[in-house]
């Protein structure tokens, strides 16, 4: 019996080694795919980044956050501006014209080629980070085949992630590079190299400030599991073991990185200007397309109530504010029936719903996996309740959750719901006809792979989804067909142009809400099962 | 598991040429055929009339292509009538139309070519599950077909898919179905004639085996009847009038076009680099010369197949015949190399090293055409992807021993005369690496450098000559294994 177990273990290890060999082809394959995507449609974000290249290249640092020739002003933190500055010094060898601030909407072939290449090449960091993450996964579930090894599955789920591919390589952004920092810092925390992880995260914060949402998880984890060197045997806190040196080191790192990034602007007294650019609260509650979050449901209910109210004469049409949501423009908007939501309210909501998961990290520390779950929850909560959330922000949840999904079947189920609905809600980003088959095929490829691979990974533990969840996910299919293919041919397209977007985002919002609840429950029930296993 | 092999290729297909600049040429030809078949009665399709100017991309493929165009035209008319409007739609191009055309290729692929490949790989004898998937992936990712069908724009996968179906049926002893499928292939594209001889020889040999009288004769008659009926079925609207049939045939085989056009990687183009064959010999001599040479080149493998019909020999002979036709026959197009590549694809499981090498060279030989279409990036990406898949799933570089190259029997019989004869696996590997580097350098040069003023065709010609030399080497190799190796397999069976 023991011999058999030993043999099985050996086979698993060998499979892990072989799957390690497969990592390079997987990464190389996706890179080739990215090259094929070069000529596809690119959104206004392309012009945004070109403008930033021009600003950072041709203006002194003190002017960066004041320049406003283009409507796409610099609204990322200083490190990202420096990143663009470095890129611009390569860009000048491709086409100097793209570096002129006044050349609005400039997109020569060289410019497109350079910008696309810059995304592909900076993705090398992401690939390296994924490689590090794959090492942190334990291969208990592994089968004999290298294809059935968790680390292999994880590498495909991360590298071939549908959302990342379309957002970065079609829509155009540098998320791969940024997620490289995040995943690398997570991997470092798993590897017990806490200071390095903290350093990487501090840099990430100053590259893109949306990561502030997950900062509580980092702060609490480092404080509880790094600054305290030991716990009581029952897992509760042991105040005597507090290591002040470690706290100082962490503080120093964060302060130094912040000084490097914001220091010059503080000295010049430009901090208020920088902050006003970074946090534009003038924008509306929902982004141009509704992100599938709590506010989408809220607004939909409001809309439905107002329609019903008008029909049965509860409401006076003259008193209603004239503002159609999702008209395309990002403007402030007032709800008609339900109370309007202020930025402060969303902030309070986010904080309230984030707190339990962060407290859980303090009272029941479960090592890096607990931290990762808390991080995912923080990101998901901010997505659900944040102000002016982009639908792209769901990637902040899906990518870290992939790490958890290959280790535990319950997380795998949540991952499947979240990834499918989240990715589907990204569809409106690509609305041009030539990209329609591309996005559908890519989505199918990724979804089919994630379902089948996770199913084979956890085939001993029964089905990953219950009938309700399966029904819900299957419902996405007719919904998508209805909204993208049937609806444009009906007469309603001119009357209610926003209806398909609203339907998709409300339907997806339900699924994401459900996944959020399920994930929260698993956080609180997690330690119990953990202890039971120990007994 | 198989889903991994099925899904990525269509994806790749679609990306190739996704953002291509306007295309004329074959794209306009296909659109024009839709216009013609939709608006004109059947009897006018192949005739020069006031509404059908044959000089403007006239229909020059067999009836099945015309029917396919008609079918697509009906769908096109449903979506937007201006796509197929008579006369006014000449040169029409728009984003939605491009999407529509590319979707028709994908649909045709999904219906005919991809299922055939998948089925073929599923029933590969003595191959593990992993092997099956990786060979399916390799075949579907073959860059040449993807680039020509989706980038350059043609429907090659339909005729090639029908031929594949024919081969599949033959391997299950469903000879009647096989010949029907092959007749469809032939009636979709006359180029399938390259494959007709092996089909014919294999079936004939099988009938001989059953005995020339009695059973064999009966099955031969049955097959003959099948072929006649399926041809009649395809040509039904044209059968009423002999004039119609003759006109279609004249359109299909334009003999007066000359020995070769453009730069083709065949023997004639290569010879004319040193020796202007087109001007020295009269057109008739050229025609006769090419006919004789083609005949001589296909003879060995065909005789072998007729004498000893075996499935493996059939595959080898498909490669040999198609390659001989490509190298020696009259009026060859560079895209015709696809007719050789698909049978080679089928061998990727047996001789991974040589097949992968050949497939790379065949794609490379079409480079001038691809450059003209602005497909350089797609070419590089798909080739690298193909090389990577072959490299990881078959580890081609380690399969260069005599046994892996199927040359054991050959070298054994040579050793009877020359005792020190040996095939060095290392040499093959180095040859491969040298050829790969050469192709890489030539690709780079023709993409970046301007040719000198005196020799504007320097790069395309170099590419043709290099590929032609490769093809001659492959012709020799495939003939050798066709003659020696299929014998060895039949011997093995006997000893078993």
TrEMBL record, chain A:
Intracellular or extracellular location(s): Endoplasmic reticulum membrane
Keyword Lipid metabolism listed: no
InterPro entries: Glyco_trans_ALG6/ALG8 (IPR004856)
Gene Ontology CC annotations of this record: endoplasmic reticulum membrane
GO process annotations (BP): dolichol-linked oligosaccharide biosynthetic process; protein N-linked glycosylation via asparagine
Keyword RNA-binding included in the entry's annotation: no
Pathway named in the protein's UniProt entry: Protein modification; protein glycosylation
Alphabetical keyword list: Endoplasmic reticulum, Glycosyltransferase, Membrane, Transferase, Transmembrane, Transmembrane helix
Enzyme Commission number, as recorded: 2.4.1.-
Main location: endoplasmic reticulum
TM annotation in the entry: 21-42, 150-167, 197-223, 244-268, 344-363, 370-389, 440-458, 470-491, 498-517
MF terms (GO), sorted A to Z: dolichyl pyrophosphate Glc1Man9GlcNAc2 alpha-1,3-glucosyltransferase activity
Superkingdom, natural source: Eukaryota
Pfam annotation, one family: Alg6_Alg8
Membrane topology: Multi-pass membrane protein
Family recorded in the similarity comment: Belongs to the ALG6/ALG8 glucosyltransferase family.
Protein name (database record): Alpha-1,3-glucosyltransferase
Species, as recorded: Anolis carolinensis
TrEMBL record, chain B:
Record-level Gene Ontology MF annotations: dolichyl pyrophosphate Man9GlcNAc2 alpha-1,3-glucosyltransferase activity
Family that this chain belongs to: Belongs to the ALG6/ALG8 glucosyltransferase family.
InterPro entries: Glyco_trans_ALG6/ALG8
Naturally occurring in which organism (per UniProt): Anolis carolinensis
EC number: 2.4.1.-
Gene encoding the protein: ALG6
Pathway(s) the chain acts in: Protein modification; protein glycosylation
Protein name, as recorded: Alpha-1,3-glucosyltransferase
Ribonucleoprotein as UniProt keyword: no
């Amino acid at each position: 019996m023991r011999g058999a177990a030993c043999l099985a273990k050996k086979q698993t290890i060998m499979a892990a080694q072989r799957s390690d060999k497969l990592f390079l082809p997987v990464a190389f394959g996706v890179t080739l795919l990215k090259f094929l995507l070069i000529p596809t449609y690119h959104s206004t974000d392309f012009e945004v980044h070109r403008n930033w290249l021009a600003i950072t290249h041709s203006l002194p640092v003190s002017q960066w956050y004041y320049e406003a020739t283009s409507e796409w002003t610099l609204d990322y933190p200083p490190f990202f501006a420096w990143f663009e500055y470095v890129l611009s010094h390569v860009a000048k060898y491709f086409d100097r014209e793209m570096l002129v601030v006044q050349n609005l909407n400039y997109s020569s072939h060289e410019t497109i080629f350079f910008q696309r290449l810059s995304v592909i090449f900076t993705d090398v960091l992401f690939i390296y980070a994924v490689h590090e993450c794959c090492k942190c996964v334990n291969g208990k579930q592994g089968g004999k085949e290298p294809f059935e090894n968790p680390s292999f599955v994880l590498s495909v789920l991360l590298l071939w992630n549908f959302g990342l591919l379309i957002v970065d390589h079609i829509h155009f952004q540098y998320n791969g590079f940024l997620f490289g920092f995040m995943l690398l810092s997570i991997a470092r925390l798993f590897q017990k190299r806490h200071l390095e992880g903290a350093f990487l995260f501090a840099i990430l914060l100053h590259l893109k400030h949306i990561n502030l949402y997950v900062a509580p998880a980092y702060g609490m984890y480092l404080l509880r599991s790094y600054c305290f060197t030991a716990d009581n045997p029952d897992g509760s806190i042991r105040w005597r073991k507090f290591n002040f040196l470690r706290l100082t080191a962490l503080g120093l790192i964060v302060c130094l990185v912040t000084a490097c990034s914001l220091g010059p602007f503080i000295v010049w007294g430009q901090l208020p200007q920088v902050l006003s650019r970074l946090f534009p609260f003038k924008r509306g509650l929902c982004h141009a397309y509704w992100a599938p979050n709590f506010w989408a449901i809220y607004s939909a209910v409001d809309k439905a109530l107002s329609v019903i109210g008008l029909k049965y004469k509860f409401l006076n049409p003259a008193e209603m504010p004239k503002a159609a949501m999702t008209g395309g423009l990002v403007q402030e908007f007032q709800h008609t029936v339900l109370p309007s939501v202020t930025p402060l309210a969303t902030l309070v909501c986010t904080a309230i719903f984030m707190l339990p998961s962060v407290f859980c990290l303090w009272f029941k520390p479960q090592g890096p996996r607990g931290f990762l779950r808390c991080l995912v929850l923080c990101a998901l909560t901010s997505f659900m309740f944040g102000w002016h959330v982009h639908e792209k922000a769901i990637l902040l949840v899906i990518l870290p959750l992939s790490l958890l999904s290959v280790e535990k079947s319950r997380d795998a189920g949540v991952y499947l719901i979240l990834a499918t609905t989240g990715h589907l809600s990204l569809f409106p980003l690509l609305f041009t006809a030539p990209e329609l088959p591309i996005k559908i095929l890519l989505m199918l490829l990724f979804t089919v792979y994630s379902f089948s691979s996770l199913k084979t990974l956890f085939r001993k533990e029964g089905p990953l989804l219950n009938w309700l969840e399966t029904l819900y996910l299957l419902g996405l299919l007719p919904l998508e067909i209805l909204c993208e293919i049937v609806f444009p041919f009906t007469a309603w397209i001119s009357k209610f142009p926003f209806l398909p977007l609203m339907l998709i985002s409300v339907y997806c919002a339900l699924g994401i809400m459900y996944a959020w609840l399920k994930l929260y429950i698993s956080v609180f029930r997690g330690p119990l099962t953990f202890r039971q296993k120990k007994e | 598991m198989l889903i991994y092999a099925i899904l990525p290729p269509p994806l790749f297909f679609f990306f190739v040429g996704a953002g291509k600049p306007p295309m004329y040429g074959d794209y306009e030809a296909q659109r024009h055929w839709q216009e013609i078949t939709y608006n004109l009665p059947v009897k006018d399709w192949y005739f020069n009339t006031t509404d059908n100017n044959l000089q403007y991309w006239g229909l020059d493929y067999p009836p099945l292509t015309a029917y396919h165009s008609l079918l697509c035209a009906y769908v096109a008319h449903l979506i937007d009538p201006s796509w197929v409007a008579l006369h006014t739609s000449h040169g029409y191009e728009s984003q939605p139309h491009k999407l529509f055309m590319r979707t028709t290729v994908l649909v045709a692929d999904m219906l005919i070519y991809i299922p055939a490949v998948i089925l073929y790989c599923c029933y590969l004898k003595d191959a593990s599950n992993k092997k099956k998937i990786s060979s399916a992936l390799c075949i579907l990712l073959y860059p040449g077909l993807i680039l020509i069908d989706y980038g350059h724009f043609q429907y090659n996968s339909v005729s090639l898919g029908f031929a594949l179906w024919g081969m599949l049926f033959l391997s299950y002893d469903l000879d009647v179905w096989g010949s029907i499928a092959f007749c469809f292939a032939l009636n979709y594209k006359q180029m399938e004639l390259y494959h007709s001889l092996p089909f014919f020889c294999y079936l004939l040999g099988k009938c001989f085996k059953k005995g020339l009288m009695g059973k064999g004769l009966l099955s031969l008659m049955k097959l003959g009847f099948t072929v006649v009926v399926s041809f009649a079925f395809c040509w039904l609207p044209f059968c009423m009038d002999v004039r119609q049939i003759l006109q279609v045939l004249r359109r299909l085989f334009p003999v007066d076009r000359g020995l070769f056009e453009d730069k083709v990687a065949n023997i004639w183009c290569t010879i004319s680099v040193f020796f202007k064959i087109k001007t020295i010999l009269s057109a008739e001599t050229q025609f006769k010369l090419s006919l004789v040479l083609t005949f001589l080149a296909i003879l060995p493998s065909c005789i072998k197949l007729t004498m000893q019909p075996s499935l493996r020999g059939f595959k080898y002979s498909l490669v040999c015949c198609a390659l001989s036709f490509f190298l020696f026959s009259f009026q060859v197009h560079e895209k015709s190399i696809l007719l050789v590549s698909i049978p080679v694809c089928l061998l990727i499981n047996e001789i991974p090293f040589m097949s992968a090498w050949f497939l790379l060279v065949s794609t490379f030989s079409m480079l001038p055409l691809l450059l003209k279409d602005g497909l350089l990036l797609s070419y590089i990406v798909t080739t690298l992807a193909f090389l990577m898949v072959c490299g990881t799933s078959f580890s081609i570089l380690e399969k260069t021993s005599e046994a892996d190259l199927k040359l054991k029997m050959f070298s054994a019989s040579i050793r009877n005369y020359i005792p020190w004869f040996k095939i060095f696996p290392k040499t093959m590997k180095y040859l491969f690496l040298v050829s790969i580097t050469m192709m890489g350098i030539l690709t780079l040069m023709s993409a970046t450098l301007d040719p000198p003023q005196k020799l504007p065709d320097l790069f395309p010609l170099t590419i043709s000559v290099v590929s032609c030399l490769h093809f001659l080497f492959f012709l020799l190799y495939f003939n050798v294994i066709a003659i020696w190796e299929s014998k060895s397999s039949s011997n093995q069976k006997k000893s078993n």
